[in-house]
Amino acid sequence: MAGEGIWLDADRARRGGGDLAATGKAVTAARRETGDPIAAASGRRPWGRDDIGAAFDKHYQGYAETLLRAWELLGRSLEGLGSDVVRSVTATVETDLSNARDLGKIPHQRHNPHRPWR
User: Fold this and answer.
1) Does pTM surpass 0.85?
2) How far apart are CA 71 and CA 35, in angstroms?
């Protein structure tokens, strides 16, 4: 990308990061509201304690725990990623503005091609 710049719509990127974080919160809330009752009901083993119920439980519990853990992790990850996007955009804009101010402080001098830069 020699000679090309990076274009960033900071407001749009911040909104996107905020939306992503809000989605993470919604996923986490859904996990709590729906997943917690599922976990609680599973603990009561509604499928029974006979041989068939025990066989079902043996396979079900591992999958249920994995799914519920992944659901929770997904919510937290989306929320964290969204927050990271917002922080990254803010840092990028602040760095760009700071660099622009610093470049503006450099005295303008004509460069003599026969004399090296100092």
Assistant:
1) no
2) 8
